[in-house]
Design goal:
It is a single chain. The protein has two domains: about 70 residues, Phosphorylase Kinase, domain 1, CATH 3.30.200.20; about 220 residues, Aminoglycoside 3'-phosphotransferase, Chain: A, domain 2. Helix content is about 55%, strand content about 15%. It has ten helices and ten strands. The protein is globular.
C-alpha cells in the first residue's frame, strides 16, 4: 500500500485495516472508511463532470498525481432489473449533460464504415466455413445441429447489417460534424452503488466518442438478462438518438458474434443456444422499435 502513503499522510489518517476490492482499496481508519484508487491519469474527468452538473460519483476527499481518495459508500442490494434501469438513466443523463458537436475529418466516418464492413465480411466467411464443415459430416453433434438449423437466421442478420451499413454511410458520408459525449465506457451492474443516492464508479476508461457505445457495451453484456426495449425507451426519453446514431447502433448490436468451438459439447450447446437467443432477442428489439417509429 506504499503508493497510497503520501495521500494518507496528507489527511493525517492512521489505517487500521486494508481491504482489496477489485482495483480499489478500502481503508478502515479512526475517522471512518475511505476508498483509495490509483490515479490512472484521467483525474480531470471528475472536475469535468462536476462542471457539467453531473455529480453522480462518490465524493473525492483528496487526490495527488498517484492516487485518489473517495468517500466510502455502502451499496444497498436491490433488484438487478431496477439497477440496470438506473444505470441506463444515469448514462442518458451523462450523455445529455456532456454532449457537443465536433468537427471531423472526411475519413473518420469512412473508417468506421470500412472497419465495420471488414468485421461483417469476416463473420460472413467464418459462418460459411462453419456450415460447410457441418454439412460435410455424416452425423451432426447437437451444437452443430443447432447452428445448421438456424444458419439462415445468422446469414439474414449479416445481410441486414450489410444493407444497413451502406444506408448509414449514405446518410452520414457528407457530414462535417459528429455528436459526441463523455462515455463511462465500463458499464456493469457492479459499477453502480445505491446509497442515499445512486452513483457510478470506475471511471478509469471514460472517453469522448459517439453516445451509442455505452448502450452497446451494456447490451452485449446483459442482452439476455433484461428487457432492453424498456431500457432503450428510457434512454431515449432522456437523450433521444439521431437517425444515424440509431442506425449504427442497430448494425453494431446485430452483427453475429464468433462462436468459439474449443469447448466440450455440453458447453458448446449452451454457448450456441445463448448465441441464438441473443440474435432473436436483438431482432425482436429492433422490430419493436421500428413499429414504434412507424406506428404499425
Amino acid at each position: 500500500m506504499r503508493e497510497f502513503k503520501n495521500l494518507l499522510d496528507k489527511q493525517g489518517l492512521k489505517v487500521d485495516k486494508y481491504t482489496i476490492k477489485g482495483k480499489a482499496t478500502i481503508v478502515d481508519t479512526p475517522l471512518g472508511q475511505f476508498v483509495l484508487k490509483e490515479n490512472k491519469g484521467n483525474n480531470n474527468i471528475y472536475k469535468y463532470l462536476s462542471s457539467r452538473n453531473f455529480d453522480y460519483f462518490p465524493k473525492i476527499i483528496s487526490q495527488d498525481k498517484n492516487s485518489i481518495m473517495f468517500e466510502y459508500l455502502e451499496d444497498i442490494p436491490y433488484d438487478d432489473s431496477q439497477r440496470a434501469f438506473d444505470i441506463i438513466r444515469l448514462i442518458a443523463l451523462l450523455h445529455s449533460k456532456t454532449t457537443y458537436y465536433k468537427e471531423i475529418d472526411y475519413d473518420e466516418f469512412k473508417n468506421i464504415y470500412e472497419e465495420t464492413k471488414k468485421k461483417i465480411d469476416y463473420i460472413n466467411n467464418y459462418y460459411l466455413d462453419i456450415i460447410n464443415i457441418i454439412e460435410s459430416r455424416i452425423y451432426m453433434s447437437p451444437s452443430e445441429y443447432l447452428i445448421a438449423r438456424n444458419i439462415s437466421k445468422i446469414f439474414s442478420c449479416i445481410y441486414f447489417c450489410r444493407n444497413e451499413l451502406d444506408a448509414w454511410y449514405e446518410l452520414i458520408k457528407d457530414k462535417k460534424r459528429k455528436r459526441v459525449v463523455t462515455l463511462h465506457n465500463n458499464l456493469k451492474l457492479d459499477n453502480l452503488i445505491k446509497n442515499k443516492n445512486i452513483y457510478l464508479i470506475s471511471w478509469d476508461l471514460s472517453k469522448i466518442d459517439l453516445p451509442i457505445y455505452d448502450f452497446i457495451n451494456f447490451y452485449n453484456k446483459y442482452a439476455l438478462d433484461f428487457d432492453f426495449s424498456i431500457l432503450l425507451e428510457e434512454y431515449e426519453r432522456i437523450f433521444p438518438l439521431l437517425e444515424e446514431e440509431k442506425k449504427l447502433l442497430s448494425i453494431l448490436i446485430s452483427i453475429p458474434e464468433k462462436i468459439d468451438i474449443s469447448y466440450s459439447e455440453y458447453e458448446m450447446v449452451k454457448k450456441v443456444r445463448k448465441f441464438l437467443d441473443k440474435i432473436y432477442k436483438t431482432e425482436s428489439l429492433l422490430t419493436s422499435k421500428k413499429e414504434e417509429t412507424t406506428g404499425t
